Amino acid sequence: xxxxxxxxxxxxxxxxxxxxxxxxxxxxxxxxxxxxxxxxxxxxxxxxxxxxxxxxxxxxxxxxxxxxxxxxxxxxxxxxxxxxxxxxxxxxxxxxxxxxxxxxxxxxxxxxxxxxxxxxxxxxxxxxxxxxxxxxxxxxxxxxxxxxxxxxxxxxxxxxxxxxxxxxxxxxxxxxxxxxxxxxxxxxxxxxxxxxxxxxxxxxxxxxxxxxxxxxxxxxxxxxxxxxxxxxxxxxxxxxxxxxxxxxxxxxxxxxxxxxxxxxxxxxxxxxxxxxxxxxxxxxxxxxxxxxx
Amino acid sequence: xxxxxxxxxxxxxxxxxxxxxxxxxxxxxxxxxxxxxxxxxxxxxxxxxxxxxxxxxxxxxxxxxxxxxxxxxxxxxxxxxxxxxxxxxxxxxxxxxxxxxxxxxxxxxxxxxxxxxxxxxxxxxxxxxxxxxxxxxxxxxxxxxxxxxxxxxxxxxxxxxxxxxxxxxxxxxxxxxxxxxxxxxxxxxxxxxxxxxxxxxxxxxxxxxxxxxxxxxxxxxxxxxxxxxxxxxxxxxxxxxxxxxxxxxxxxxxxxxxxxxxxxxxxxxxxxxxxxxxxxxxxxxxxxxxxxxxxxxxxxxxxxxxxxxxxxxxxxxxxxxxxxxxxxxxxxxxxxxxxxxxxxxxxxxxxxxxxxxxxxxxxxxxxxxxxxxxxxxxxxxxxxxxxxxxxxxxxxxxxxxxxxxxxxxxxxxxxxxxxxxxxxxxxxxxxxxxxxxxxxxxxxxxxxxxxxxxxxxxxxxxxxxxxxxxxxxxxxxxxxxxxxxxxxxxxxxxxxxxxxxxxxxxxxxxxxxxxxxxxxxxxxxxxxxxxxxxxxxxxxxxxxxxxxxxxxxxxxxxxxxxxxxxxxxxxxxxxxxxxxxxxxxxxxxxxxxxxxxxxxxxxxxxxxxxxxxxxxxxxxxxxxxxxxxxxxxxxxxxxxxxxxxxxxxxxxxxxxxxxxxxxxxxxxxxxxxxxxxxxxxxxxxxxxxxxxxxxxxxxxxxxxxxxxxxxxxxxxxxxxxxxxxxxxxxxxxxxxxxxxxxxxxxxxxxxxxxxxxxxxxxxxxxxxxxxxxxxxxxxxxxxxxxx
Lengths: 293, 787
Prior knowledge:
The complex is a heterodimer. Chain A is α+β, with helices and mostly antiparallel strands. Chain A contains 11 helices and 14 strands. In chain A, a hairpin with a 2-residue loop joins strand 12 (190-199) and strand 13. The longest helix of chain A has 24 residues, at 260-283. Chain B is α+β, with helices and mostly antiparallel strands. Chain B folds into 3 domains: 16-23 and 484-630, Aldehyde oxidase/xanthine dehydrogenase, molybdopterin binding domain (Aldehyde Oxidoreductase, domain 4), CATH 3.30.365; 31-138 and 203-254 and 260-293, Aldehyde oxidase/xanthine dehydrogenase, a/b hammerhead (Aldehyde Oxidoreductase, domain 3, Alpha-Beta Complex); 367-463 and 635-785, Aldehyde oxidase/xanthine dehydrogenase, molybdopterin binding domain (Aldehyde Oxidoreductase, domain 4, 2-Layer Sandwich). Chain B contains 19 helices and 28 strands.
């Protein structure tokens, strides 16, 4: 096994192009999927954590840039507006505090588990994934980046450089909810995130996503549209419409953790909870459209 | 707390210093010069016929010393079973051979097929991949009821069926029980599953075999709760090594919970292979191997019927249980669903007629054996659940129905062969109501409701039979061993004491609690007492640690040996003081002539024993060391009452435990802090079973919960703060310390408490739910609420 830990992106790109190594950041998924200590699976490892450009969360007029080597603990501790609360809440529930100190936001996206806790909150933030390689740089919307269970749009010579939250998604307030057998160190049965902007109690913008109930986490675009113009206090009245969209777009599975009927039901319950919390966060804000980065 | 650190002192555990600072000496810390490593090739198929194993490529791989298959063990015995159950018809149970390496068939996922011994573990693993095994798949036997149907696929071709035994207890009561149930004004019936569990001690199993050619002696280092038992089972039944040529060492062991009682193939393999390759051979289980090779626990499917009169008095109990043995009989497997389960069906109550039927079944799954509580949690769960259901059906308060049926006079002979010596179940329940603040429940339930949560109150009792066990009795019941314990108390010349005990300590705190007893008896500081355990070369004999027996049986042996030592020391003191031995008393470390100020210190007497210049040599041997074997006259009967409050989230079905109160009667308590810790640990495991844990196989016998990804262990934030009380103590009447044992109580008493509370929460909210099988996952609770 060889192990590389370059200091700059150019070296990383060269290694990627020439040796097709496995990328290593926090290592929490790489370790779990290897056959155990003393048992390298033969792949070369490219550790990206020494590359400075990949670290940290930077606000800019365009939004927020979350470097690919940024850990979930850094997200949880960052100074971010209420619109990004869903992401911070997910950051505190991923794995366990020890995992949060190692695992990265980008790694969670690249691992592409249907139950990835990071995906639903980033979906409601319209996140973009920035990739780089020797040949080109790309900006891929998150909803197109994760293409299926354990598959992404990333090519073998490419790596994720950063995750971007556009300034337009920095408005309002958001919330994240998940359910599993226990609070930490567990694979989620279902999860949801919602972001909402209100004006005088009316919903002007809503973004909703559900994870662990379909091969890739989904936005509920029809229900989002329906919420526009509705009073924030009346959301629960629209539950039948929510359940209709969930039935149409989700494909929950039966497994050890829960059966499909439960997943379908609880996804709706979690969405409503997220909406209620986001609404309460959004309406308590001053009558502006939220803060800029 | 006694100032002298003797009996009753909450002394901090001395062993924790080395555990917490990384200085523990676990089996995996032992590395023998020139050791080789073994990797086991395990079956990934639940059931199949082995048509051939080609090891030729593996043998040529770098570093490989030898590749072993069943053929190498042709002259060796199978892994023995330590308990023979006799069925309802007087016939012995069916007992299949349990080979060290799979012979002709594989019968569960994880069964070792071949073993590679190589210079390094990496080389052994690589070579194992080069072994070609031709296995023809056979239908897997997974479901117990299907396994017993006529014409079902057999797990063992050479047995008559998949039925290990059909046991009835008390068989003579069968007709009377049927009649009582037929005539009863009210019968409550409950069908339930006590799910399969994986014990999951933090330390995985490890074995190192060593053979010394110079004198043909073997040493096995292993993670065992009972090294002498392993010496007996492996030496006598598997490898044919006499005791004097076999040493078994169990150093610090990182948790056992029952699963490290048993003798396993890997132990026999390493010991055997060490001689063949003439190098020490080491094996350490990975966590994945632990999931598919450690004996698993519980796995009962039960129907229980409770007959009552109109006032809720119990008239009769009838149960029918299917108990999963797995593919082979682990060391004590047959005893768990029978003598450790059926005998406890009276619980804390006067029920005149009881009949327990258990059919033990072979399946293509990992063998099942004792897991913390062993049989008693199964008995308690079904009994306390059916009582709760009966109370609801009859409209009687669940506490009141229990009180109406409590045994109040002792000794009490149950209809299931036990004699409870002491107890005060009303006092325990009184204390519980106070500790759990039942009066405040309604206010807390109203507050929960405001937050959209359903609150429930659960209560139950438990009793266990511990201090295992009178040897003549268990011999009649089928045990193939005695269940006494031994101790040697060696007093050194300077007065310090070394105790060699057969009770192994793997988290129970013997190294702290046992010296407290000696310190109280002699009047010396506990720091002057050292406990030696876990090595057949250093401890004369031992039956080990399980069934909450260490202090009750091992501690009693130590007390008896210490009494002999003190008796001899008193004679030496009498000589030194020129008085009669009857006039000498031992107090605070001095022998004093009663009624005088003439005395001699403990240390002067012990020195005289080893430097016998002024010594009654014609009457007494020099030296001060005595051994005692203690065989208990009866079991001990710890009992208690538990209550908890849960909240159920009606939208998600998620259950949280908000309060938990445990009142236990453990008799005399030597170290209250250690007892609290034992109860806390047991409660954690019991709540884990109730809410989170469950071992699941699919229809093909594949283990679906083969790692921590899918097997949910409880974590600190899944558990509430506990209120624990031990003040309602009625000391055991038949052992010298009056102790009963506390290691399993929490794990036995708590699962029904949680389920009773969840059912209460749902019924209070108007849901017609009478039972939910464990673990009470959000999905299951929500499904139950949907009806």
